[in-house]
Every structure is written in C-alpha cells, then in structure tokens.
Amino acid sequence: MGNPYRVGIVGLGNISGQYLSTFAGASSVTITAVADLDADRARMVADSLPGAAVLSVDELVSSPDVDVVLNLTIPAAHREIALAAIAAGKDVYGEKPLAVTLEDGRGIIERAATAGTRVGSAPDTVLGTGIQTARSAIERGLIGGPIAASAVMMTPGHELWHPRPAFYYQPGGGPLLDMGPYYVSALVQLLGPVKSVTGASSALRPHRTVATGEFAGQTIDVEVRTHVTGVLEHESGVLSTVTMSFDSAATASSHLEVHGEEGTLIVPDPNMFDGEVLRHAVQGGGWTPVPVEAGYVDASRGVGLIDFMAASAGRPARASGEFALHVLDIMTTLLRSADLGRALQLSTSAVVPALVPLRPAEEWRSSL
After folding, report:
1. Which CATH superfamily is domain 5-121 in?
2. Per-residue pLDDT tens for 130-174?
3. With contact defined as beta carbons under 8 Å apart, do 274 and 184 qualify?
4. CATH match of 126-293+327-345 with 3.30.420.10
C-alpha cells in the first residue's frame, strides 16, 4: 500500500464536497476514481481532481488503483456498496449510519472479517477538539464520576433546506438514524458502551413538502417516526436521555450535557468538530471554559478516514466499523423498544477507542 493512500469515492452528493475539501489539504490522500449515478456530476468532480477516473461502481471497487472505497451513498445503499468493496478485497469507509438495519451492519463486519479487509464509518466529528476535550475532562475527573447525560436535537425537518430530502423520511432515515449517529457516538465516546435502552416515538404528520431546489412544492410521504426519545443505560451505570426530532421549530437546550458528582459539562454540537466545552462546578462559580486539550485541530469530514488509514495493529482505527455497529445497535434497538413499549437489551458492545491527543492540523493532514 503506497503513500499517498488511494481512495475511490462512490456517491458525490452534498456531503462529498466536505470530504474533498479535507483531502485537498491532506498529502496522505489521493482520489484516484469517482462514481455516481449522475454521470455529469461525476465528470465535473473528476475534472477538479487531477488523475481521477470516472468509473462505474463495479469498475471502481475492482480497480487496482483504489486502496479504499469511500462510500458516500444514501443509507439504503450502504450495505450493497460495502459488500461489493469487501468482495473485491478492498477496505471500505462509509458515511453514517453503517447500515439501515442491525442485521445488515453485522453482515458487513462479519464479511470483512472473513475477507481480511477493514471497515470504517462516520461520524468522525467526535474526533475533533470539541468531543475529545470533553472526554479528556471527564477522564481526568473534572466533574467527578459521571451520573447522567442528555442529548437533544430538535429541528423542523430537512425538507426546508435539502433539495432532495425524500430519503430522510424513508426506511433508514428519520431523526435518529440521520442525526442520532453524531449524538449517540458522542455519548459512547464520553461514557462508554450501552447495555440497554427504553424508547418512545411519534410522527407529527404523514407528508412533508419540499421547500427548495428543483423539487420545491413536491409532497413526500413520511415512512418513519419523526420524533424519538429514550433512555440509554450505559454499562458503567450512567443514564443518558436522548431526544431526536424533525417535529420542532427550535430548542434552547444544550446539544449535550454530562452531569457528574462534582459538576456539569456542556459539550458542543457533535455534528461539528470543534466548539467550546463549559464546566459548572457543584460549588457554583458559573460556567467556565475548559481549555482545548485533545482532538484533531481544525478537523473536517474525512479526518476519520485519515485516522483509519494511519491505524495499525497496535492502535486500531477510532472511526471503526465495530464502533459504528454498536451505535447502530443502540439506535435500531431504541426504535424497536419504542414499538414494543418496553426496555430491550443490546446484542453488541464496543471498545471505546483511544483518546485523540491534541494534534495540529498540519500534523494530521500529512500523517499516514
């Protein structure tokens, strides 16, 4: 495997631009091939990437010029692309969630283990200075032993800004599977794996109207629950409450809060890489900032893939498929708990990856 690492991208939708921006400044990565259902879009992207070929998906996953397949397709296609890449002997790194169902996610991990290939998965936002600084603060006892946490994401729905929002309201979408990976991944990073969940859910209305783009005015059917709430019982005994919604106008709640015996942390938006961590001690004194002390500095989407490529037997990838499988288990089991009306045990666990030491941008962008 050479340096730079050769990446083939499948799916060139909205999120791909952020990955391409990250890789443009990273000497450890080169894009050798792209594939998309929209041939014109694929050619336009390839024209901006010297040496990148426009290929079909089958050609890309079997290309000898591709070391890892970066899967940026919609969630419903994650399993198909991942399995094709694994069958071709490629490593694969995908957008969140790992798959639409736990069974599909488990199949990806098992197939890769059999084939001797590796799987990585977003979100990698948890590797930035925001979540990693909060984790460092918790681990060094800044709030004492953690007792509880809350995660809140309340929006009116993606149809107000996304030009093609239909898939957010189809199986594999909804607020929990779409935005939940950021929040749940952060909770597992901060507080460890989860052993059981209790959930409840609802849907505000059966249809949504697209507000922007070429499909503006089009009505789409809602096939998923658009408001999900629940309690996660971590293996450590900490209880986290989660509320994910596409049915709210707004909220003034913190994205994440962690409460401990000696204080509380406000943790920044887990959909972002940085942000200020604030601490309030039991003794009072108001909210005070926690100095940045861990994480990839000035990170952006794709840093998880760079970390994945730099991993070794001695230091496993932080944005690993196994970690993503546990997050998927938490979310899908929470939805099933909401349907059944009772607490459910999880069938997976996870090893929380090593804390990211504070790493300047110029360092991680050139590392491999």
Report:
1. NAD(P)-binding Rossmann-like Domain (3.40.50.720)
2. 999 999 999 999 999 999 999 999 999 999 999 989 999 998 899
3. no
4. no
